[in-house]
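Technical annex, item 7. During the second reporting period the consortium partners agreed on a shared format for inverse folding records so that results from different sites could be compared directly. Each record opens with the tokenized structure and is followed by the designed sequence. A conforming record, contributed by the partner at site C, is shown below for reference.
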């Protein structure tokens, strides 16, 4: 049976040819059944598989086809745009990647999907840095960092996370140190948290 779940199982088992065939069959069946949002999801998963195995042209085609499906909810559309931006960046098409990723981050914000917005901003910061736009990259990185602080603070249960304020101080100190180094060396900022 060609289902997205079976295709994902083949992908997990590193059987890329089988996964591709199953995703394509599932997309065809979704189209025949009139399930365009479902077809878009399957095509998005196929695009992500192609990205993972560095078949970038096929990844782009699958993701663009997914984005062309009617009835896709805004969150899923933004996820697809973020994924397509990663494909374009991997292919060296940074200007397109940046534009798509900015739009995805805006959609996530409009839908109040803050975790997804954080990920999109983190990706965008990297794309901007790779494109030589260090100042803008730093601004976006700072926005992502502030968003993560806000999200983490909202999720904190003080009785269980007494060490949290100290960890935040450590991360902020490391961030400031990396930014100072970056200013002195004019090199990209990379944090491992």
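Designed sequence (site C submission):
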């Amino acid at each position: 049976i060609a289902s997205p779940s079976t295709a994902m199982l083949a992908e997990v088992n590193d059987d890329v040819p089988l996964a591709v065939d199953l995703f394509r069959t599932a997309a065809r069946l979704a189209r025949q059944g009139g399930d365009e949002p479902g077809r878009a999801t399957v095509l998005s998963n196929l695009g992500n598989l192609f990205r993972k195995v560095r078949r970038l042209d096929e990844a782009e085609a699958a993701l663009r086809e997914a984005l062309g499906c009617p009835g896709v909810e805004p969150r899923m559309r933004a996820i697809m745009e973020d994924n397509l931006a990663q494909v374009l960046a991997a292919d060296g098409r940074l200007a397109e990647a940046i534009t798509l990723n900015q739009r995805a981050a805006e959609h996530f914000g409009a839908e109040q999907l803050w975790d997804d917005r954080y990920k999109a901003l983190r990706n965008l910061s990297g794309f901007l840095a790779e494109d030589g736009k260090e100042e803008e990259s730093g601004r976006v990185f700072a926005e992502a960092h502030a968003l993560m602080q806000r999200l983490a603070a909202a999720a904190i249960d003080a009785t269980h996370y007494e060490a949290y304020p100290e960890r935040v101080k450590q991360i902020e100190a490391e961030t400031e140190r990396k930014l100072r180094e970056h200013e002195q060396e004019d090199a990209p900022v990379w944090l491992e948290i």
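The mean pLDDT is 83. The chain is about 80% helix and 0% strand. All partners now use this format for quarterly exchanges.
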